[in-house]
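Blackboard transcription, Thursday session:
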Amino acid sequence: MQETSFIQRVRAGQLLVVGFKYTVLIILCLIMMGPVATAVLGSMRTTGEFLSKPFGLPTNGIHWEHYTDILKSYSFWNSAKNSLLITAGVASLNVILGSMLAFVFSRVSFWGRTILFNILSVGLLFPTVVAILPIFIQVRKLELINSLWGVILPTVAFGLPTTVVILRAFFVAIPRELEDASYIDGCSPIGFFRYILMPMSRPALAAVITLQIIAGWNEYFLSLVVLADSNKWPLTLGIMQFQGQYITDWSRVMAYVVILIIPAVIFYLFTEKYIVTGLTGGELKG
Amino acid sequence: MSAILSRVLLRPDQRIDSKLRKRLNKALLVVMFAAPGMLVFSIFLLIPVSQSVQYSRYKWNGFGEPENYQEWGNYERLVEHKVFQGAVKHSFTIMGLSLTIQLPIAMLLALLVGRGTLPGRRFFRMMLFIPYVFSEIVTALIWLYVFHPRDGLANLAFDTLVPGFKPMPWLADRDVVLYAIFAVLIWKYFGFYMILYMAGLQGVPKDLEEAARVDGANWLQVLQKITLPLMGSTIRLTIFLSVLGSFQQFAIVWVMTQGGPVSSSETIATYLYKYGIKGFNLGYGSAVAVVLFLITVVFSIGHQRMIMHQDYMEYTS
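(Written on the board underneath:)
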């Protein structure tokens, strides 16, 4: 049965329903974007203006100095560097280790495979909070306190179950004939992995990398606990330096927030497809 | 490589034949590929967490080795502490609200924008999902302003919509603060569940719904009897993730209220941080973590049972 097109349905007199749908959607969009608008507006006014009237337009012209101050400060770029390092480390390590694990879990049958996979899956259950204390103790034992690795490695450990589950489901779908053909041609399993399986799995890999980049960029709790030296702080912690004990420089905080949002939004626009695929295992179309 | 292995593992009179060589090669492959990942996983997740139980039996300030053996003392104190009881109650409240409000909203929106031919679908989808990409810090800070006691956006909005509304100190009012925080949580996370439902919807054949409509069913009946049951596994997945997520909330709550005022927005996670880590009481904190883990495990097992039962019924009926 042919799906009735939108225009046809409108003509058929369902204007009321359609109008209702749009109303709901537009209201929701306002709710979703309203808070963000507050932040953007707040960043363009002075703290004084803000405290007296949080939601309003700038009165004395746009105060760009909040942005320029941040963008000129060394500590900002330092934190940015730390964020980039953490994100790159988490994403790359997670994907490499995860794909290797997913490969053997999906295409090689060996004793203990199910047990190991179940152990890994248990990792999906742990709330970060449950593990934070013992991980802190462990990181300290390994003398990784204050090192970015102390943040990267546990984050990778947390992300591995998700990655392995997604990739394994994908790898399992690659036809066995392809693999056997490559072996007949003299390829080793490692070669198959490197030259055939991975290139074929680009969509799933892109999804996993995207999810891990988001996780690494937004990492907060672990960094808070492990990194005592403020020189090592990523952007998510760097914002704390604007909150003094008695006075909070709100406008500057808002400028910082806007600066953090922009890359996230740009990143999302480019990778929307991959995020959605990764979260839904590739079922979503359109 | 397998030559080395074979020299190590075989007795002198055993000879290597191609079948054995193949098995050794396979073992090598598995070890080479699985070891690094499992190593990182064990060292940084598995082993530390299993040591929690041991740490929880000590009173320990975190420096040096645990010394002060308490047996179950930490747990006794935990159960009696009013603040902890409140934290547990709050966490369960968040879970309940999430299941009854967040998931249905996500479902309704998935139905609205998930399929069909409404123009601008993709734009709305993006608007609804984007808060998920923001970090928790960013979310918490933005909403701190929205809830500003005098003229924050929240007060402004209610003031224009509701006549006779007096500006409220959202985050300072003991009865309101938890719900204010829940509003933030929905704002940030419901897009995620919406996307999951959208994927689930794709698995529901449109023909079935059309057929039901032809037979005279209205949209509510179609929803109840056809769409929702066919999305069963997706719904169960979102319930699972939602409950787990409710118990994990730390960053947003901490940045906005630190669990206050007077511990009225304390969650199990903020409690762990405040009384365990900040209070240099790592043994006590470990006890909290173990309790939280037990809650999680009990729920997971229950969920697994329910799923197996459900899927079994679906399979056999």
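Lecturer's comment: Residues 73-316 of chain B form a domain with the MetI-like fold fold (CATH 1.10.3720.10).
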